[in-house]
Amino acid sequence: MPTGEGVNQKAREYQHPFIIRITHWVNFIALGIMVLSGLRIYNASPIWETLKIPPAMTLGGWLAGARQWHFFAMWLFAANGLLWVVYNLLSRHGRRTTIFSKADLPGILPMIQYYLRIRKNHPPVRKYNALQKGAYTTVPLLAAGAVLTGLAIYWPVQCSPVTAFFGGYDTARVWHFLFMASLVLFLAGHLLMVVIAGWSNFVSMITGWKKTPPPAD
Question: What is the pLDDT of residues 138-178, one digit of tens each?
């Protein structure tokens, strides 16, 4: 017979492979550098005269310094993101748990109803629900848009077809800001969901393991 302590003890489940964890944190660092240095670059643009970001919320100290930080983080962000996408496309883990597929379509409405409190019981899911998988599949597209518009701004002559595709240099800057703003909104929502989900979810992205409650009797 198990003791009371053994009955209440939580089991551990392996949730996140090492490559998912390392790309997750590298992505967090790279995106943070890009956002803070980008806000300094944003302040220097003549098309944003009506709203300026406080210098304490920016990185780089001045325009040239901010550009150096920004372009360094851009390449880190692009390479790290490419590694994440390739791994998820090629691995069984990514195809089964992260990438949105046709099989996830029936799960969209129940999850929306649950989040709107129309449905009381949480729909049955595996690791990620349909809305989460949709978000994780869409975010790489937003990131690709941010990188492409960044290249259009960084090398407007060498990447002139890309710059032209986004409507020219100034318009590409606006698109770049919108793509980055979308990534920041996703990050904010992601952090909120982590807080709601609990401490064990945060720890699992460091160790790979998550404590799970024992099954109900």
Answer: 999 999 999 999 999 889 999 999 999 999 998 998 899 89
pLDDT score, position 147: 93
**Structure tokens that stand for 216 in this block:** 């109900």
> The dihedral of CA 102, 107, 111, 112: what is its sign?
positive
Q: Where in the sequence is the domain holding 52, given as residue range(s)? A: 24-90
**For the chain, how many structural domains are there in total?**
2
At 58, which amino acid appears? T
| Boundary of a domain, candidates 90, 122, 147 | 90
3-state secondary structure of 12: strand
Report yes or no on 125 lying in a domain. Answer: yes
In the beta sheet, which residues pair with residue 208?
A: none
Element (H, E) at 209: strand 209-212
Judge if pTM exceeds 0.85: no
Tell me the CA distances in angstroms from 67 to 3, 26, 55, 126, 134, one per residue in order: 61, 19, 15, 42, 33
